[in-house]
């Protein structure tokens, strides 16, 4: 993935976390937890698809295991927010999980140098 996308994601999360820190620190910590898990899951998914493309064949059991693990990790992050509301906000975790996907969507949607043409 492009370094610009990682920098843009870091900028969005940093500004959002600092802004939410002024409102409530639990929102900020939830956003950071969700974005860290989201970045890890995106990196893991990219590595999985690179392996599938290199192998030129995907077996359904390997793909099912990968996606079960991915959804399990997302569920675990949300479960942490549900079990420890004194430290994390579950809605901020959910936004952190999808923040990279939003950044990717906007990065390729906006017509600019390096974006969509």
What is the element layout, followed by pairings?
Blueprint: H1 3-23, H2 25-55, H3 60-83, H4 90-109
Helix pairs in contact: 1-2, 1-4, 2-3, 2-4, 3-4
- Structure class: mainly alpha
Give the terminus-to-terminus CA distance: 18 Å
**Main beta sheet: strand number and arrangement?**
none
Helix/strand order, N-terminal first? HHHH
Mean pLDDT score: 82
Number of E-state strands: 0
Number of helices: 4
Radius of gyration: 16 Å
Beta-strand content bin: under 5%
Assembly state: single chain
Task: Extract low-pLDDT stretches.
Answer: none
Percent of residues in helices: over 70%
- Shape, please? flat
Overview of the molecule:
- This protein is an all-alpha fold.
- The protein has four helices and no strands.
- Helix 1 packs antiparallel against helix 2, helix 1 (3-23) packs antiparallel against helix 4 and helix 3 (60-83) packs across helix 4 (90-109).
- The relative contact order is 0.18.
Compact summary:
The protein is mostly helical and 117 residues long. The protein has helices spanning 3-23, 25-55, 60-83, 90-109. The longest helix is centred in the middle third of the chain and has 31 residues, at 25-55.
Entry keywords:
single chain; 117 residues; mainly alpha
């Amino acid at each position: 993935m492009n370094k610009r996308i990682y920098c843009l994601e870091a900028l969005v999360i940093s500004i959002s976390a600092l802004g939410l820190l002024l409102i409530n620190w639990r929102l900020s910590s939830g956003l950071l937890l969700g974005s860290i898990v989201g970045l890890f899951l995106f990196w893991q998914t990219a590595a999985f698809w690179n392996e599938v493309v290199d192998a030129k064949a995907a077996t359904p059991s390997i793909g099912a295991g990968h996606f079960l693990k991915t959804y399990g990790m997302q569920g675990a992050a949300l479960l942490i927010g549900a079990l420890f509301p004194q430290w994390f906000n579950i809605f901020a975790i959910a936004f952190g999980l999808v923040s990279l996907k939003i950044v990717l969507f906007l990065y390729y949607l906006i017509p600019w140098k390096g974006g969509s043409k």
